[in-house]
Amino acid sequence: MASSIMDAQLPFSLDKYHVSEEYGFVLPAPLAELPPYYQPWMDIARHVTELIHSHTLRSHIHQMPELDASFLQNHRELRLAHLVLSVTTMGYVWQEGENGTVKVLPRNLAVPLWAVSQRLGLPPILTHADGVLANWRKRVPEGPFDMENLELLVTLPGGDSVRGFFMVTLLVELAAVSGIKAIPDVINGVRRGDTETVTRALEDIAEAISSMTEALRLMHTYVDPAVFYGIMRIYLSGWKDNPSMVEGLVYEGVQAEPMQFSGGSAAQSSLLHCFDELLGVTHEPHSGAFLTRMRDYMPPAHKQLIQDISSGPSLRRFVLGQDSAPLAAAFQRCVSRLLDLRSYHINVVSRFITVPAARARQLRSRGEAGQEDTLSKAPTALEERGTGGSGIMSFLKTIRDRTKEVSLPPSDTGS
């Protein structure tokens, strides 16, 4: 096998990793329509929410023709097909809630979803790469990239909060673009021993991470915690580490035994994986194993980028080996901003999961419903877990604590 770019010592660049200069990991200009042959998929995917509400999505899917996915011709067509088929799958599985799950995904949905997934190198379930990176369009094409001008291509139950959740997450991805673009400068600068280039690039990365935190703050404006917890979460949940579907799901026509796949998770975003590998953050075995597994839910080129950053020269060792206060300060600023982001993420998860979970338990124990019906009927299986199946708060706190450990000794930062 040919040596990687890292081994060959050629200048490191983002060219081969499907990273856009303007959009980073976000898919530029996703298609909104598939070729006419695939209209039955689009017709159902565009009405998943209404069909779930009328309890008729499953019956509509049973009547759907089994279409041949091999006519899909390019990456954008495959990404849209994966998005619409996986959103339809989530609706099919969770139509009747956590106590009305199914054991089998019918072949007219399972076979094409599997075929598209194989071609893309993605799992046959809704991922971050689908719901966030490939599920957007501008209302006014020449208009700004902001909440008012963005809409989803397909959606799930939860109304404006679903749009808010996916679009805010998209804006977090976009806020990181300048930081992702600076990574090659760091790697090439370390190789050349160019402290000034590395320092400038690290300052860009610190600024980008700070912008990610600012974008994440919009979650409080655009997403209702009761709707997220009580309605949305189940449709983002998978069939691995989920008490509602212990065995997993049979993909009819693909394999006779059930398969298990995790639901969507922030851990499926390539952003923090890249920054962790660059800064030298190493996670404890349990959390690290989960994060590593989440890389299988990313487009393969993005996963490869993370692996190649990881096999590059040690930035932290380089910083410690230089007598440069500006370099040390820039590195430490990256670590501090990453800590701030992770601490804020814990705050968000507390507001959107921990607090509503406690309230839901309280309402159920009292037998109350009424105004807070959304919460009282919330699924119970994932109360303390993320949609990806992780024990959410302990997981996030462990990751934050491991991030602290790459901080430079006080003498090296000039403090």
Automatic annotation (TrEMBL):
Residue positions binding heme b: H345
Pfam families: IDO (PF01231)
Region spans: Disordered: 363-391
One of the GO biological process terms: L-tryptophan catabolic process to kynurenine
GO cellular component, one term: cytoplasm
Alphabetical keyword list: Dioxygenase, Heme, Immunity, Iron, Metal-binding, Oxidoreductase, Tryptophan catabolism
Domain of life per record: Eukaryota
GO MF term list: heme binding; indoleamine 2,3-dioxygenase activity; L-tryptophan 2,3-dioxygenase activity; metal ion binding
Family statement: Belongs to the indoleamine 2,3-dioxygenase family.
Protein name: Indoleamine 2,3-dioxygenase
